[in-house]
């Protein structure tokens, strides 16, 4: 990628589908060049789509659940020779089911991807932003961060981690010219529910938000330097507000009714 004097550079993880794909498209449409990453070959088709929108794109097919995958992406970012103006830490996955029955490796992969890789890539990119005195960071959390998640115990806990991490970084970087914004989507129409084995639940079969609308909300909040945005439907926003007042025990029971295996046919 050649240096550009006019176009800023954005990095988007989990960019081959869902919210990440829509974020990447918005960045391209808004005049950014991109480094995009995902763990599947679809990321190369994503790069072609973004190039058609006028962006210069580096596509990185790598597994961010592995430390080597994060280092590979960090190397590709450094290889552009350009400062990162916007970093969207969006990659994540979930797993539904009874914790005592789900495979340990699946739960640990959630921790590795949602938590560890977020910290790892942030450590590789954000210090340079702070040194320059400018940059924007968007961390995809979830409305799930606001409640215990029976039948998604590790996923909800991982999103609580990323939410806390985002808010802590925001405070640390307040006087360094770098903003950190947390995006908290509700149920969104992506491949998440299929991959997480949640299709037979009330949560999986319920109404979902448009990922393009969620991404737009996230992008606009990022560019305004806002602390967080709960997106996208009125139901999701009300849920976010209500969670501040409900006891954790009540939120856990409510989540269990939505996420219990087989609840979608009840």
- Helix and strand content put the structural class at alpha/beta
Query: CATH-wise, what's the superfamily?
Result: NAD(P)-binding Rossmann-like Domain
Order of helices and strands: EHEHEHEHEHEHHHEHH
DSSP summary, beta strand count? 7
CATH top level assignment: Alpha Beta
Strand percentage lies at: 5-15%
Oligomeric status: single chain
> Could you say what the CATH architecture is?
3-Layer(aba) Sandwich
Kindly give the count of domains.
1
- CATH fold type: Rossmann fold
User: First CA to last CA: what distance?
Assistant: 53 Å
Write a structural description:
The protein has 266 residues and is an alpha/beta fold. It has a single domain (9-265), classed as Rossmann fold (3-Layer(aba) Sandwich). Helix content is 48%, strand content 14%. The protein has helices spanning 18-29, 42-52, 67-79, 104-132, 153-172, 192-195, 202-205, 211-224, 234-242, 248-259; strands at 9-13, 33-38, 57-61, 86-89, 135-140, 178-185, 228-231. The protein has a seven-stranded parallel β-sheet with strand order 3-2-1-4-5-6-7, sandwiched between helices. α1 crosses α8 (211-224), α3 (67-79) runs parallel beside α4 and α4 (104-132) packs parallel to α5 (153-172). The longest helix is centred in the middle third of the chain and has 29 residues, at 104-132. The model has no long low-confidence stretch (mean pLDDT 93).
Outline:
With 266 residues, this protein is of the alpha/beta class.
